[in-house]
Amino acid sequence: MGALVAAGITGTRGKDKDTARDRTGDLRMDPRLFKAAPPLSNKKLVRNALRHVCLAGAAMRTQLDEALTALDAVAPDVATVFVILFRENTSPHKYRALYALVSGDGGVDDADGVLVKIHGTGGPARVGLQWVDATMKYDSGQREFKPLATSGRLTPLTAAVTLVSKK
């Protein structure tokens, strides 16, 4: 046993592990190390849809720059879900406006949420969610919009909407 003690091999190694485990356990419980997850946002998805489909090309460059500036101007605590308003639910989709979902309590699935226009010439300034007819997601691989089954419900997956016609 004397040779083991001289070599530094004793039963204290297990005690060191317990002490280290206690120290890391204390660190895990420290509230200063907790960081809340950021809210889900579709800002990058909408940015790509505007850039590659809705306002693509040199002729639309100034309108694209204005739309991206308006998109970046909205603070994350004001809105995290953005949607593009299309005229119709059929291809080719005609860009009308860019909206931000502003809800009463900050949640995404808020029944009294309102779409507020942040860019564009067409469409109303404010739209209630009850007026949303169809929702679409943007497929960045194929660079096209596909219909979503959750019509009228806006989530971070939603990238575009059409409104109920006034007929």
From TrEMBL:
<dbReference type="InterPro" id="IPR038209">
    <property type="entry name" value="CKK_dom_sf"/>
</dbReference>
<dbReference type="InterPro" id="IPR014797">
    <property type="entry name" value="CKK_CAMSAP"/>
</dbReference>
<protein>
    <recommendedName>
        <fullName>CKK domain-containing protein</fullName>
    </recommendedName>
</protein>
<feature type="domain" description="CKK">
    <location>
        <begin position="30"/>
        <end position="167"/>
    </location>
</feature>
<dbReference type="Pfam" id="PF08683">
    <property type="entry name" value="CAMSAP_CKK"/>
</dbReference>
<dbReference type="InterPro" id="IPR032940">
    <property type="entry name" value="CAMSAP"/>
</dbReference>
<dbReference type="GO" id="GO:0008017">
    <property type="term" value="F:microtubule binding"/>
</dbReference>
<dbReference type="InterPro" id="IPR011033">
    <property type="entry name" value="PRC_barrel-like_sf"/>
</dbReference>
<dbReference type="GO" id="GO:0005516">
    <property type="term" value="F:calmodulin binding"/>
</dbReference>
